[in-house]
Specification:
Helicase, Ruva Protein, domain 3, 2 domains, 62% helix, flat, 149 residues, single chain, mainly alpha, 5 helices
Length: 149
Amino acid sequence: MTAQLTTLLRSLALALLLAFAAPALAIEPVDYRDAAEEARFRALAAELRCLMCQNQSLADSPAGIAQDLRREVLELIRKDLTDAQIKQHLVERYGEFVLYRPQLRRGTWLLWFGPAVLLGLGTIALVLIVRRRGASRPGQPVPEPEEPL
């Protein structure tokens, strides 16, 4: 029984290792000109969203479209465009969805402040419900405090 359990645990560990390593292996290596270019590329890729995965940054996504976008970002960096120009180019081409942090504008107010508004409304509703339940039981007797022995 111990040998079977050990074999099972080793197989499970290997499967988990491969499952977590596969996305990292799918990202193709890039030859950077220098450390500054690499740092700039990594920072930009972390701020951009994979159009297919949606919840992963461009840096983390193993999708084919993410590899294409990474290549495009590197080409734009090598054309000496600023980070703002690169982001603007990608927004013009793919829409503001490509940015992890969309700009604060009239069209994005709900995106930025919607969760806080919903949380506030939920808190107010909860307080009102608790107060109404407490006020709706006026006929119940209040328990008398016990006297110490």
